[in-house]
Amino acid sequence: MSNENTPITKGSTIEVTIESLAFGGQGIARHEGMTIFVDRAVPGQVVRCEITKLKKRFAEAKRVEVVTASETEQEPFCEYFGTCGGCVHQDMKYDAQTYWKGRQVSETLTRIGKIADDIEGMGAEALPSPLQKGYRNKMEFSFSGYADDLKVGFKMRGSEYDVLSIASCPLLPETCAGIPALVEEYCQASKIGSHRHGKGGYWRKLVVRVAHATGEIMIHLITAPAKSHHAVKPLEKLLYNNLAQLKTFAHSTRKGRADFATGERLISLGGEPTITETLTRDDGQTVDYMITPNAFFQTNSVGAQVLYNRCVEIARPRKTDVVYDLFCGSGGIGLFMAKDVKEVIGIELSKETVHSATQNARLNGIENTKYFAGNLSSDKDFPADLPKPDMIIVDPPRSGVPAPTLKKMKSLKPEKILYISCNPATLARDVAELGDGYTLERFSAVDMFPHTSHVECIALLTKSR
């Protein structure tokens, strides 16, 4: 083991104190003026670690031994922790997780977005999820292997393809326990390989969805478009016989090697076409959402209530406001806020998703919403006769808002932009890009994903005077 005066090299082992937590989950330590990013480390620990990557100003390392424990560490509650590629923070107490997540996103905004650290909400811990276990309403499982070696589970930590067999995940409600194990046993017996298992590979993704308000379960099986569809109906029957709350079984196919858990072509749809989730506003009113197999919906239902209510609080909508809801999905925050504004106009690329949003508005008797399929960055696709927006809500994918869309947003000159993001880095980048016309006024982080490195952010930008 090296000491403080010994230069480090790749493969060497050093002892360091973990000072903080990087976005992504690695612990941060300092050694001889160099920043060390240590995998599986908790702030406050003193650890021995082995250097795995060495650069000029930083190094990456894997933990070898905990020399001194931290008061914020705890025993993980899942047998797969450390091997599974999902959770990274089960070994840290939950209040410490929300503290560090709040600090991470504030530091990212300050460093990348050049935002002053005295903005309202900056530096505050992330708002906690009401549930820390069983909170997910959607889980995507991968297939790997063939026959007795076929596995249904999650990608292993640090691997792009290797799948760890998962009997049950504690982040899903108990009503979904055992689903992956049941599917795995059936698919092993089928003697049909997974998608990547050479010629004739078939099984691709198993998506389990559950509505927390109703308990309804949806299973979406995604396969290759191969000649093995005869194996699906017996699996569907098996699942219906074993799951009393299973309401929907969808079978879709997908081409290509891209590892997405969405179907391109619907082959069959058994049971009900949707399951229904309900979110409650702070004023006690409820909003229902019909969830289709490919629909986007926040993966933490009780966390979504915290997120959306916080959005309304931060945005301070007015009864006279015309609101554009971009990347609107199946209605999401726009439907949640519709009662507070004059009109909500949702725009989304997918025609299927626009139809779903329209159906959700009808389900709730909300009449002040309109939804369009189109590309905001294209004047050709964008309706020309829409009223000018007072507020734009944008909830983009992790890659952030495309540059042409940002340009279009600025040209519309709304008084407010409410930006919801699952990626603090792209949020910071886009806030900086909007900085020539808009000022970040309020900010909040919400922990929608306990025990993982992910966090949701809300930023309110107002037009500069």
UniProtKB/TrEMBL annotation:
Its EC number is 2.1.1.35. Residues 7-65 form the TRAM domain. One of its GO terms (molecular function) is rRNA (uridine-C5-)-methyltransferase activity. It holds the Pfam family TRAM. S-adenosyl-L-methionine binds at residues 298, 327, 348, 395. Belongs to the class I-like SAM-binding methyltransferase superfamily. RNA M5U methyltransferase family. The active site is at residue 422. It comes from the Bacteria. This is RNA methyltransferase, TrmA family. It is an enzyme of class 2 (transferase). The lineage of its organism: Bacteria, Pseudomonadati, Thermodesulfobacteriota, Desulfovibrionia, Desulfovibrionales. Keywords: Methyltransferase, S-adenosyl-L-methionine, Transferase.
